[in-house]
Design goal:
- The protein has helices at residues 3-17, 21-40, 61-67, 80-87, 101-106, 123-138, 168-198, 201-207, 212-237, 245-269, 273-292, 300-306, 311-322, 328-357, and strands spanning 50-56, 72-76, 93-97, 112-117, 148-153.
- Helix 7 runs antiparallel to helix 9 (212-237), helix 7 (168-198) runs antiparallel to helix 11 and helix 13 packs antiparallel against helix 14.
- Helix 6 links the parallel strand 4 and strand 5.
- Helices cover 64% and strands 8% of the residues.
- It has two domains: 3-38 and 168-357, no CATH class; 44-153, abc type-2 transporter like domain (abc type-2 transporter like fold, 3-Layer(aba) Sandwich).
- The protein has 14 helices and five strands.
- By secondary structure, it is an alpha/beta fold.
């Protein structure tokens, strides 16, 4: 393989891709959706004054950190019962900080912080508050998950009846990152390949020193460039480096390889942009479907079906890494699922493009 030819094809396509309005729209759309959701679920300092009740049993630095946030009013209470009463009525959320919290965090013991949400408040306020609490707790020592935050709906006992830890901002980030990879892989890559066929430039390329494998690799590098650029931009905009960022990085890279491989297969099978436009919608929805149920319960039959789609494992790995809960034992099966799905598709890509080169 001549990597100079591959690089030349990739450089040309990276520039030409944004000249195609349909391709440009597919690249900009995920960012636009992210910004729209950002308006719907703003940060704590953009949403107006939020009152947070705190039962601090050990004079934690977390309280002063919360007080320093613009738009946050901290109401200290003298008991957990008083905190629950206020959380069910007036405040957005209540935090129970155990004695010795700061020392336990510094020692790496991951103490538990019970947090109660007022479910009568809007989803935007609750999402902003959850994000704020995570940021402040992580800021105590500057690393991911120094304490375990257990979220409860106000009125539920802390023991045994915790509400599912569903955070709308994390859910939306995972969904939009997968959307960006799907749009790049299932639309941008096959569009670049099929345009070469329609304009008969692919035949000219194959008559040049470039072989089919080098043409396909050039398109693949273009897809990887835009996939990683788009996913990286979305993660930076939403502070996706918080949590276990090395796991997040590996998951995004593997997800990008999978999405681009889907595009290479589609580019080999289809011959017109109309075919790509028709079937790319189906492919994008199929790739995105697992991300819609990543953090919520789904019927058992649906869950089994979604596990057949490799992006199910991408969503699960991102869920753990963004929450700071990812471990090698917890994500290696997800990485294996992504890599295995990509390998199967790659075999189909090789067969398809060998047939194309004949």
């Amino acid at each position: 393989m001549n990597w100079r030819i591959v690089a030349a094809i990739a450089r040309k396509d990276i520039v030409d891709a944004v000249k195609n309005l349909y391709v440009l729209f597919s690249l900009v759309l995920p960012v636009g959706v992210f910004l729209l959701f950002g308006l719907m679920f703003p940060d704590a300092d953009e949403i107006g004054t939020m009152t947070v009740a705190v039962y601090d049993q050990g004079d934690s630095r977390l309280v002063s950190g919360l007080r320093a946030v613009p738009g946050v009013l901290v109401l200290e209470v003298d008991s957990e019962e008083e905190l629950l009463a206020k959380t069910q009525k007036t405040v957005v959320a209540g935090l129970v900080l155990p004695a010795g919290l700061d020392a336990a965090v510094q020692a790496g013991q991951q103490p538990e912080v019970a947090a109660y949400l007022n479910m009568k408040r809007g989803g935007g306020q609750r999402a902003a508050l959850q994000r704020l609490v995570e940021q402040q707790i992580w800021g105590l020592v500057g690393r991911a998950e120094p304490a375990r935050i257990t979220w409860h709906a106000a009125g539920q006992p802390a023991a045994g009846q915790a509400a599912p830890e569903f955070q709308i901002d994390r859910y939306l980030l995972i969904m939009i990152v997968v959307m960006g990879l799907a749009m790049t892989g299932a639309f941008v890559v096959p569009t670049l390949l099929v345009e070469e066929k329609e304009k008969h430039t692919l035949a000219a390329l194959l008559l040049s020193p470039a072989r089919p494998v080098e043409v396909v690799m050039g398109k693949a590098l273009t897809g990887l460039f835009y996939s990683l650029l788009l996913a990286g931009l979305l993660l930076v905009l939403d502070r996706g480096w918080m949590g276990n960022w090395p796991v997040t990085l590996v998951a995004v890279v593997l997800g990008s390889f999978f999405a681009v491989t889907v595009g290479l297969l589609m580019g080999g099978l289809f011959r017109t942009t109309n075919q790509v436009n028709t079937w790319s919608t189906v492919a994008v929805l199929a790739i995105m479907a697992p991300s819609w149920t990543t953090m919520i319960d789904s019927p058992p039959a649906m869950d089994v079906a979604l596990r057949l789609i490799p992006t199910y494992y991408l969503g699960h790995a991102l869920q753990l890494s963004l929450a700071g809960e990812a471990t090698l034992a917890g994500v290696w099966l997800d990485f294996a699922g992504l890599a295995g799905g990509t390998a199967l598709l790659l075999a189909a890509v090789v067969w398809t493009w060998r047939r194309e080169g004949r």
